[in-house]
Amino acid sequence: MLTNRLALLIGVSTYDHPAIADLPSSLLDVAEMKRVLSRHENGDKNFECIEITAGDGSGPVTAKRIREALKESFSTYDGELLIYFSGHGHLEFNGGYLVTQDGEPDHPGIYMSELIDGALKSSVRTVTMLIDCCNAGALGEGAQAMSTMRDGMTILGSSLADQASYVSPVGPSTFTGLVVGALEGGAANTRGHVNAASIYGYVDASLGEFGQRPIYKSHARRVAPLRRCNPHCEDSLLRQITDWFPDQDSKFPLSRKFEETAKEAEADKVAIFQLFKKLQVGGLIRPVDRNQLHLYFTAMNEEEIELTELGRFYHRLVVNENI
Predict the structure, then answer these.
(1) CB proximity list for 265: less than 8 A, separation 6 or greater
(2) Distances (CA, A) of 3 to 6, 124, 237, 314
């Protein structure tokens, strides 16, 4: 494959067995995930998305079809792999299942452990699993515990092993809707990066009103962004922090020369002040006077600004040449 980022998006919306209810929201779940994963916010190519749904013209979403797609991805690909599943989940004494279209009460579909086993044997650089189904937390439990997870492997599931996952009658499921919101920028950091850990934090906080808790398991030395959104502060701006704040405890004095509405305003200082406003919106600087919220008054009163704790963090990144 030519891409170095591949997303396998699986949605099971219809089921052959009359005892298993259809999940029409799964089709919308996959469509929404493809929309936010295929491109970064600025339009740059992100993941190459492969959809596996009943509506893709390739036949029913059977256990055989999903296994073949997983096998091909794990065996022929060595980049960054993302696996997304939306459908029913099922828990038995021997572990969890992803219920497939041809699933039956006695044979629900694919063991969740098959995803773990495939990842362990694969040469993919990283594998991220986003699983939206009931009992999603069973993935990586028991025989699939954290001790068996390989480096570069992350699991984000919609619910605990003994919990149901909520669906919406008119839109994406509760979990997927939140994941999409996180990828659209809700979980973006100052640089606009969204990763699995920040998605989990966003989803966990948002699910406070529901009787559903997401799960997050990871064994990764490096947390790579799953999507880039428009940043609060561009890297070029972040690298200028050390020009104005040589060390983390530095204070920068403002004056009326920085405020464009003041008669003392100077064009070069006004331009810098506009950059300071972006840094403040990004949470990186603040007035030294904690009772003062606006840089306008800080400048007009000729007071100082300083780095916030987050600003100190990015200051370290710049000093260490990590940005």
Answers:
(1) 256, 257, 258, 259
(2) 7, 13, 30, 31
Taking each helix axis as running N to C, give the angle between helix 63-76 and helix 113-121, from 0 to 180 degrees, rounded to the nearest 10: 20
Both tokens of 19, joined, read 């005892």
Half-sphere exposure (CA, 13 Å, Cβ side) for 312? 7
Stretch 262-289: mean pLDDT, rounded?
A: 94
Helix, strand or coil, per DSSP, at residue 114: helix
In sequence order, the 6+-apart residues with CB closer than 8 A to the CB of 119 are 74, 127, 129, 150, 153
Spatial separation of the C-alpha atoms in residues 152 and 149, rounded to whole Å? 9
Residue 49, CB half-sphere, CA atoms under 13 Å: how many?
Answer: 21
Residue 277: the pLDDT is 94
Tokens of 244: 């104005």
Residue 46: its H or E element: none
Question: The pTM is what?
Answer: 0.84
Contacts of 95 (CB under 8 A, 6+ apart): 111, 112, 113, 138, 141, 142, 143, 144
Structure tokens at 115: 């995803």
Amino acid 1: pLDDT? 44
CB 211 within 8 Å of CB 68: no
Contact of 13 with 27, CB cutoff 8 Å: yes
Q: Which pair of structure tokens corresponds to residue 177? A: 């809707």
Distance CA 174, CA 172 (A): 6
